[in-house]
Amino acid sequence: MYQVITMYGDNEPWWFFEDWQEDVEEDKTFDCLEEAERYYIKKWQELSSTYEYINTKVNYLAAFWNDGDERWCEECDEDLQQYKGLALLKDNQSVTFESGDDFHERNNDCGKPKCCKSSFA
After folding, report:
1. In a domain, 16, yes or no
2. Considering the domain boundaries, does residue 51 fall inside one?
3. Which of 56, 60, 93, 102 could form a disulfide with 106, with the two C-beta atoms 3.0–4.6 Å apart?
4. What distance in Å separates the CA atoms of residue 19 and residue 5, rounded to the nearest whole number?
């Protein structure tokens, strides 16, 4: 089974920290890769027209964000950038094959955003 998920939270979707599924906003399931890929592309186009910044990895993982979309982290004592994540997964794991040329390592970010150090513990 293939899934296309959208997430919203402190981390880009490729980190897959222990509690990453808590950030999932939408989870669509598909029987075949072609259907999942069509839906991923549709969502990617929607999100890329809504958000100012994007960072896309080769295996169908993308993060979108806007300046000022932050939340205060008491534990970190600072504001953390919030990301809209998009991922095409197979059995809830990142796929091991590469996406089409349109999605390869696309990046127009504005530098390294802040990341909660407690996420790495």
Report:
1. yes
2. yes
3. 56
4. 15
* Two structure tokens written together for 58: 């080769």
CA-to-CA distance for 104 and 49, rounded, in angstroms? Answer: 18
- Distance, in Å, from the CA atom of 49 to the CA atom of 74, rounded to the nearest integer, reads 32
pLDDT digits 0-9 by tens, 57-98: 989 999 999 999 999 989 889 999 999 999 999 998 888 876
User: Measured between alpha carbons, how far is residue 6 from residues 25, 76, 91, 97, 121 in Å?
Assistant: 6, 25, 15, 20, 24
Tally the domains of the chain.
1
Range of the domain at 45: 2-102
DSSP for the chain reads: -EEEEEEEESS-GGG--TTGGGGEEEEEEESSHHHHHHHHHHHHHHHHHH-SEEEEETTTEEEEE-TT-EEEETTTTEEEE-EEEEEEEETTEE-SS---GGGTT-B---S-----GGGG-
Residue bearing tokens 């998009």: 86
Q: Is the pTM of this model over 0.85?
A: no
